[in-house]
Design goal:
The relative contact order is 0.24. It is elongated, with a radius of gyration of 19 Å. By secondary structure, the protein is α+β, with helices and mostly antiparallel strands. Strand 3 and strand 4 form a beta hairpin. The protein contains five helices and five strands. The chain has a domain of about 110 residues: Hotdog Thioesterase (Thiol Ester Dehydrase, Chain A, Roll). About 15% of the residues lie in helices and about 35% in strands. The longest helix has 10 residues.
Length: about 170
């Protein structure tokens, strides 16, 4: 019989919230680098004149830029090279798997935007694994805001924690 993953200590994490604010504007170079890195040379991301002709105030960022670049990061990379937000849940002997993201984009972000994000640990649910034992599903919500505190994007993310070896 395996030990439950969803302990009272972990349940106490549900509802936790953290906020981060970027220290500077996103900038044209960051947007251009991201667009090129994902292989998307849409002129909306690279050319101010083209974007203005399309009705935008300047070039815009690819939709996922705001949720993937961790522009609000203030620290150094962790041991895996990651600089973004991590909950660092008190779980041992588990691997973490990113199980999915559900994005909502309210408006494109601009080079002049200075983004803040609020992360909320919304829920945790322990479910059976097809191979036996259980796994822990963790649902978090990140809301991204511009400098005027207007919502620009939402990222609902599900991660799964699976024990590396089931207890006998």
């Amino acid at each position: 019989m395996s030990t439950p993953l969803l302990t009272d200590e972990l349940r106490s994490w549900i509802g936790r919230e953290v906020k981060y604010a970027a220290q500077e504007e996103l900038g044209r170079a960051s947007i251009r680098y991201f667009a090129l890195a994902i292989g998307d040379e849409n002129p909306l991301y690279l050319d101010d004149e083209f974007a203005r002709a399309a009705g935008y105030p300047s070039l815009i960022a690819p939709a996922t830029f705001v949720v993937e670049t961790c522009q609000y990061a203030h620290g150094r990379p962790d041991g895996n090279g990651y600089m973004g937000h991590a909950w660092d849940l008190p779980l041992t002997g588990c691997r973490m798997i990113r199980a999915g993201n559900d994005y909502e984009f309210i408006r494109p972000v601009l080079p002049s935007d200075c983004i803040s994000v609020t992360w909320i640990l919304e829920d945790m649910v322990e479910r059976p694994r097809s191979s036996g034992g259980t796994q822990l599903f963790v649902i978090t919500v990140a809301r991204y805001y511009d400098g005027a505190a207007a919502l620009v994007a939402v990222n609902r993310e599900t991660t799964v924690y699976q024990p590396l070896a089931e207890e006998q």
